[in-house]
Give the backbone structure.
Amino acid sequence: MPDLDAPPRVLHGIGVGPGLAAGPVARMASPPALPDPRPVLPDQPAPTDLPVSDPDRELADAVRALEATEADLRARADAATGEARDILSAQAMIAADPTLREGVAERVRSGDDAPHALRSTFDRHREILAALGGYLGERAADLDDIAHRAIAAALGRPMPGLPAPGHPFVLIADDLAPADTVGLDPETVLALVTERGGPTSHTAILARALGLPAVVGCAGILDVPDGTLVTVDGTSGRVGAGVGEEEAADVRARAADERSRLAAGRGPGRTADGHPVDLMVNIGSAADLRGADLDGVTGVGLFRTEFLFLDRRDAPGLDEQVTAYAEVFSHFPEGTVVVRTLDAGADKPLPFLGLPEEPNPALGVRGLRVARDRPGILDTQLAAIARAAERTTADVWVMAPMVSTPPEAADFVARARAFGLRTAGVMVEVPAAALRAERLVEVADFLSVGTNDLSQYTLAADRQSGALADLLDPWQPALLQLIATCADAGRRSGRSVGVCGEAAADPALAPVLVGLGVTKLSMSPRSVPAVRARLAAYERAECEELARRALDAADAAAARAAVLTAGP
Ligand code: PEP
Ligand code: MG
């Protein structure tokens, strides 16, 4: 039980998902570390947290752990819907499989304690599945998840993965990877707070995709006991831990007011004096559009195609890709869809590519660079996009990730055109590309600034690093200056220059980006209302003045302060 008499504490992190929330915390438990096996010296006392050396008891413990795992997975399956329900039911059946129990019994007979017998039995089954390849091979990773749960149960630790306290909660974690959050239900999770992670981390992207208030890089959050009532301000990054019911109710009421204020704003993006700004959405698949309010949205500014390639042993075939792309296009018969070709490597590892290990993957073979040795993957993808484009009235654009030089851009554009794709552009994620934007727009039809990577490479700060979150802040004047270079090149050439990184989802930054000359802002669907509302509050000349203030500032915090103190 949390200590309800402990005084409230204020923790600070970086707000990455605007909005307010209040509720009890529940943590994402990490996979349990396996303790050393029982001591080998007969005269050495057994550590107290290890089971005694009694095979019958070890076996009973292991069986109990498997039963608890099965029950937990079944309960989760019952509470889930659709694909998540099927996956969880299948996992529950695996946990109940008699061959698994026989394997565990054999390991116990040969001297293992319960946790080690579970580990080695699951490892053995994993090897067998992996060797089969294909669909069954892909299921090998599912066994790891079940194994972690069973071992945690045998050790008396909390089961790893998403908690299921049975009521809405604020999810706290060290950091969140995409796989950790499969099945995360935005109806039950009120907000996300992580100890690590920066403004461009996957936690931030996920929070915006789900429309959840979120704070990352929040030191001390993991010391807050489960069940403690907290308030979360995803704009300022402030987390109040151990607050009372009254304060929580006040925060909930303010959150509801803010939601209805934003919902009242409709229509396309424009400044107070009517200067149009394309508001577009970032998606990974058609599923991200389910339930999205697309009022005033002109299309998809970033379709991240790598989600189709995740967790696979082989690349998806042409037909499968055509179907997936056509499904997305069908949502925008009168809009534009910008498809980004595969961005593999570094923070998006795709095992099927079998890329060699590199000491510094973020600076290695990733994004468009993969096509140097493997042009077939890009060509198949361009062929599939072109074929899907023939089936739709949507205006289909393609763009390449991680372009560094004008010849790379020219090569990509020529390839795209060879497949009949009329509008081909590039992402600006590397400082070299931003500095040479003037040359890029001579060969590319448009530029889209990926601020997540551009800030990582400009400030030399790993985008996953919570410790360097201040450097990764999209308000860094150096980053804004590179965006201005791109926008100037766009203005002079008449090419469109958009921003599709997380910076575009920050309502306070939106007028600054427009003031720099950006014409399109692409963000998670749920971020659109707040960005639209903020843009509508300024005239274009005021946006330009805000941009000047931000560019003049010494660092990100000063830039933010200079803009926020200017009103409205
Ligand atoms: C970016 O880098 O800003 C971007 C939009 O791409 P991703 O986050 O997918 O790397
Ligand atoms: Mg990127």
